[in-house]
Amino acid sequence: MAEPVEPKKADSTPQDNSKAESEKWISILENTTSAPWLFSAIPQAENKLAFETAPAPAQSEIGRARVAVPVILRATVHHLSTVPLNSPIRTEHPDIFDIFGALQAIHDMYLTEKIPDLETWTSFWARAQPVVLELGMKLDEKGFGLPKDDVESEGEQKPSE
C-alpha cells in the first residue's frame, strides 16, 4: 500500500504539499495496477451480485470498494470535463465523449454527494457499471490504456524496485 504522506511542516511550501499529495495518489494508482487480481481473477456471479446489492460493513472489501468507486469516477468526470469542447481530441474521439456524456449524467444524478445507503448504491451501480465498462474498453481500444503486458510486468516487480 502507499506510504502515508508526512504531515505538513510549517516551513513547507504549497508546491511541496501539492507534490507530496500527487505522489501519494500516483503511488496508490501504481499499487492498484500491480494488484494480482486485476487481470487474473474472474468475478464469480455471487461476488458480482454481492458488490451490487449485499449489505456490507464499511471496512469490508465490498464496503471499501463501494467508497473507492465513486471517488475514482468523480475524478474521471472532473478530468474529462476539462477537455475543451473545441479540442481536437473531442472531434477525433467522439465515441469516447459520447460515453463520457452518459457517465457525466450518472455523476450528476448520484455523485454530487456521498451515496447514502444500499438502495441508492444499487441503483447507482446498475446504471454506472455498463457505462464504466464501456468507457474503459473504448479507452483501451483507442490506445489510452496501458497494454496488458505492461500492467502484468509492473505487477511482477517488487514495491522496492
The helix-and-strand class reads mainly alpha
**Strand percent estimate:** under 5%
- How far is the first residue's CA from the last residue's CA? 14 Å
| Average pLDDT | 79
Largest sheet: none
Poorly predicted parts: 1-9
Q: Could you spell the SSE succession in H and E letters?
A: HHHHHHHH
Inertia-based shape: globular
Number of beta strands: 0
Total number of helical segments?
8
Percent of residues in helices: 55-70%
Radius of gyration: 18 Å
Topology record:
Layout: H1 14-33, H2 37-40, H3 45-53, H4 61-81, H5 88-92, H6 94-110, H7 118-141, H8 148-156
Helix pairs in contact: 4-6, 6-7
What do these coordinates show?
- The protein has 8 helices and no strands.
- By secondary structure, it is mainly alpha-helical.
- The chain has helices at residues 14-33, 37-40, 45-53, 61-81, 88-92, 94-110, 118-141, 148-156.
- 68% of the residues lie in helices and 0% in strands.
Summarize the structure.
With 161 residues, this protein is mainly α.
Question: What tags apply to this protein structure?
Answer:
161 residues; mainly alpha; 8 helices; globular; disordered N terminus
